[in-house]
C-alpha cells in the first residue's frame, strides 16, 4: 500500500505505454472475422470474373450463394435434400454409437486387463496404422449398398480414438486413489466402476468428440463407394455433373451435421464431467 | 497413563519386519533395505509416531502394516493374528486427502462402507457419517464437492472417511504435510482431540519433529538406509496436548534429543 505512493511517475507512464494496444487488438473479434471473410470473397469474385476460369470449375460467390439457397430451401421444404440429410444423419448417429460401444468395450479390456494391454493393444495399434478408407470397397461387398455398410465404415474409422482414450484414462488413475481402494479391499470390479471409469470420463469424452467428427468422414467415404441415398451420394452426383456450387452447399450441410453431433457430445460431457471445475 | 513398556496386551506387534528391493543396475544386483529389523508394539489407545528424514523407510513400514506392500521378512500381528493384507480393522490416510472429486463429501465419507458392505449399508450409516462430519466441523459441507473445500477441510473429510468404519488402528502417512503451518497446528490439536475421544490406537508418520512429539505417546526415530528404528522416546506430556506446550522446556528437550539423533549433535558430533 505504501508502495503505491512512492511509485515513480515515469514508471507509470512506461507501464501505460506498454499497455497501449494496437488497432487490431482493440477491434472485436467478430468484426475481424467478418472483414477477413469479406476480403476472401472479394478476391474470389475478382479472380473468377477476370481470370477467365470457367464457372464449371470454380463458380463465383454469387453462384454458390444461389446454390446454397436452393439446397437449404429444398432441405426445409422436405425435398430430396431433406431425405438425403436424414439418411446420412441416421448413418452418422448409428455409426457413432457403434464406434462408442466398440471403443468403450475394447478400451476397457485393454485398460483394465493385462491380457488386453499385452495381447490386444498391438492389434488395435496395427489396425490404426492402416489407411482405413481403403477398406471401403470391402465394406460394400460385406454389408451391401444399404445404410449398413456406411454405418460399419463410420464405426470402423472412428472406434480408435474412443478405444485409446478409454484405455489411457483407465491407466491414468491417481496412484493414491488406487492405494485407498486397495486398503479398502475393493475388488477389481468395484475399482473399475467406482474409481477407474469415473476418473477416465474426461479422457473418454475427448475420444468421443473425435469419433463424432470422424464418423461423418466414414459415412461420406462409405457413400462415395457404395452409393445409397445420402448426402455423400448427392455430392458425388453433383460433382460428376460439374455443379460445384451444389457440392459446396452439400458439404456445408455435412459439416453442420458433424458440428451438431460434436455439440451433443459436448453437452453430455458438461453433464458427466461437471465435477471437473 | 499408558504403560508403554508393557508387552502383555499389545494390539499391534511388528517382529523383525524387513523390506528390501532388488534393483538391477549395470549388471550388478543392488539390494536396497527400505526397512531393516523393525520391531515395536502398540497397546490399545496408544499413539505412536515414526519420524525420520525422507527416504528412511517410515512410509514403507506404514504401508506394510496397512497390507499395501508385503514385507520380505518378519511378521506383523494384529491381536496375535498375522496380517497378510489390507484389513478392515485398519484405517489409513495419506498426505493428499484423496477424495474422489465426482462424489460429494458425504459420499466420500461413506465410500469405505459402500465398498466393504454395499450401498445399503452405506445409506444406513448416514447418521454416523453426519456425526463424524459435525465433529470435524464439516456438517454444512456434507453435500459439497471436494473442489469446494480448502486443503484443511479436505483433510478433515479424509479423517472422517478413515473413522467411519470404526477401525481399531489408524495409520497416517504424513497426514498434514501438505498443509500450511497454521492449518497444520490446528489440525494437530483437532486430531489429538478426536483420537483421545475414541481412544484410538494410531501411528503417525511424519518428518516434523514437533508434530511427532505433539501427537504421540511414543516417538520412534528412524535412520535412513537401512531404515531401522534407532530409538524409542516416550513422551511424558499431559493430555490433552495444547499449542502452548510446543514452546515449553520439556517439549524442547524432546525436540533437541530427536534432532540430535537425526542430524548428529552439532559440534559435539565431531568427536564421534
UniProtKB/TrEMBL annotation, chain A:
The protein's superkingdom reads: Bacteria
Question: Which GO terms of type biological process are on file?
Answer: transmembrane transport
* GO CC annotations on file: plasma membrane
What organism is recorded for this protein? Nitratireductor aquibiodomus RA22
**Record's bilayer topology term:** Multi-pass membrane protein
Q: Does the keyword tRNA-binding apply?
A: no
Q: Does the keyword DNA damage apply?
A: no
**What family is this?**
Belongs to the binding-protein-dependent transport system permease family.
Q: Which Gene3D superfamilies match?
A: MetI-like (1.10.3720.10)
Q: Which UniProt keywords apply?
A: Cell membrane, Membrane, Transmembrane, Transmembrane helix, Transport
Protein name, UniProt field: Binding-protein-dependent transport system protein
- Chain ranges of the ABC transmembrane type-1 domain: 85-265
InterPro entries tied to this protein? MetI-like, MetI-like_sf
Provide the protein's localization. Cell membrane
Q: Tell me where the transmembrane regions lie.
A: 30-53, 86-111, 123-145, 151-172, 203-227, 247-268
**Major place of residence:** membrane
From TrEMBL, chain B:
**By its UniProt entry, which InterPro entries does this protein fall under?**
AAA+_ATPase, ABC_transporter-like_ATP-bd, ABC_transporter-like_CS, ABC_transporter_ATP-bind, P-loop_NTPase
What Pfam families has UniProt attached to this entry?
A: ABC_tran
Q: Which UniProt keywords apply?
A: ATP-binding, Nucleotide-binding, Transport
Gene Ontology molecular function: ATP binding; ATP hydrolysis activity
Domain (ABC transporter): residue spans on this chain? 12-249
Transmembrane parts of this sequence: none
The organism's superkingdom is given as Bacteria
What family does the entry list?
Belongs to the ABC transporter superfamily.
Q: What is this protein called?
A: ABC transporter
Amino acid at each position: 500500500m505504501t508502495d503505491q505512493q512512492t511509485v515513480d511517475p515515469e514508471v507509470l507512464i512506461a507501464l501505460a505505454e506498454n499497455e497501449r494496444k494496437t488497432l487490431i487488438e482493440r477491434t472485436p473479434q467478430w468484426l475481424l472475422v467478418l472483414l477477413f471473410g469479406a476480403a476472401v470473397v472479394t478476391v474470389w469474385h475478382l479472380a473468377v470474373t477476370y481470370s477467365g476460369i470457367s464457372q464449371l470449375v470454380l463458380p463465383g460467390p454469387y453462384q454458390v450463394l444461389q446454390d446454397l439457397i436452393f439446397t437449404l430451401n429444398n432441405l426445409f421444404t422436405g425435398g430430396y435434400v431433406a431425405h438425403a440429410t436424414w439418411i446420412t444423419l441416421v448413418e452418422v448417429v448409428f455409426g457413432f454409437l457403434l464406434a462408442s460401444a466398440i471403443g468403450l468395450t475394447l478400451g476397457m479390456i485393454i485398460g483394465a486387463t493385462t491380457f488386453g494391454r499385452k495381447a490386444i493393444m498391438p492389434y488395435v495399434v496395427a489396425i490404426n496404422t492402416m489407411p482405413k478408407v481403403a477398406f471401403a470397397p470391402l465394406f460394400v461387398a460385406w454389408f451391401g449398398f444399404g445404410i449398413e455398410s456406411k454405418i460399419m465404415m463410420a464405426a470402423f474409422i472412428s472406434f480408435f480414438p474412443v478405444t485409446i482414450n478409454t484405455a489411457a484414462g483407465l491407466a491414468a488413475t491417481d496412484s493414491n486413489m488406487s492405494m485407498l481402494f486397495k486398503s479398502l479391499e475393493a475388488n477389481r470390479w468395484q475399482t473399475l466402476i467406482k474409481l477407474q471409469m469415473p476418473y477416465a470420463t474426461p479422457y473418454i469424452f475427448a475420444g468421443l468428440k473425435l469419433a463424432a467428427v470422424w464418423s461423418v468422414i466414414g459415412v461420406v467415404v462409405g457413400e462415395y463407394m457404395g452409393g445409397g441415398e445420402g448426402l455423400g451420394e448427392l455430392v458425388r452426383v453433383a460433382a460428376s455433373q460439374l455443379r460445384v456450387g451444389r457440392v459446396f452447399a452439400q458439404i456445408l450441410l455435412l459439416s453442420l451435421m458433424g458440428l451438431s453431433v460434436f455439440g451433443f457430445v459436448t453437452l453430455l460431457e458438461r453433464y458427466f464431467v461437471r465435477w471437473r471445475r | 497413563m499408558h504403560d508403554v513398556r508393557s508387552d502383555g496386551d499389545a494390539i499391534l506387534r511388528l517382529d523383525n519386519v524387513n523390506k528390501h528391493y532388488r534393483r538391477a543396475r549395470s549388471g550388478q544386483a543392488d539390494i536396497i533395505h527400505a526397512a531393516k529389523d523393525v520391531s515395536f508394539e502398540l497397546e490399545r489407545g496408544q499413539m505412536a509416531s515414526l519420524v525420520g528424514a525422507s527416504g528412511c523407510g517410515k512410509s514403507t513400514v506404514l504401508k506394510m502394516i496397512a497390507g499395501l506392500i508385503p514385507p520380505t521378512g518378519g511378521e506383523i500381528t494384529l491381536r496375535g493374528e498375522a496380517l497378510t493384507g489390507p484389513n478392515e480393522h485398519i484405517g489409513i490416510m495419506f498426505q493428499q486427502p484423496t477424495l474422489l472429486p465426482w462424489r460429494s463429501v458425504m459420499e466420500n465419507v461413506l465410500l469405505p462402507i459402500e465398498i466393504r458392505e454395499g450401498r445399503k449399508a452405506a445409506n444406513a450409516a448416514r447418521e454416523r457419517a453426519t456425526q463424524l462430519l459435525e465433529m470435524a466441523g464439516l456438517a454444512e459441507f456434507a453435500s459439497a464437492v471436494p473442489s469446494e473445500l480448502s486443503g484443511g477441510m479436505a483433510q478433515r473429510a479424509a479423517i472422517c472417511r478413515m473413522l467411519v468404519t470404526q477401525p481399531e488402528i489408524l495409520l497416517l502417512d504424513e497426514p498434514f504435510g501438505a498443509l500450511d503451518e497454521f492449518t497444520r497446528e490446528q489440525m494437530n490439536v483437532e486430531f489429538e482431540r478426536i483420537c483421545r475421544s475414541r481412544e484410538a490406537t494410531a501411528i503417525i508418520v511424519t518428518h516434523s519433529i514437533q508434530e511427532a512429539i505433539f501427537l504421540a505417546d511414543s516417538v520412534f526415530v528412524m535412520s535412513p538406509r537401512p531404515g531401522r528404528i534407532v530409538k524409542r522416546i516416550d513422551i511424558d506430556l499431559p493430555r490433552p496436548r495444547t499449542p502452548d506446550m510446543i514452546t515449553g522446556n520439556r517439549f524442547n528437550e524432546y525436540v533437541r534429543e530427536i534432532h540430535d539423533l537425526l542430524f548428529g549433535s552439532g559440534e559435539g558430533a565431531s568427536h564421534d
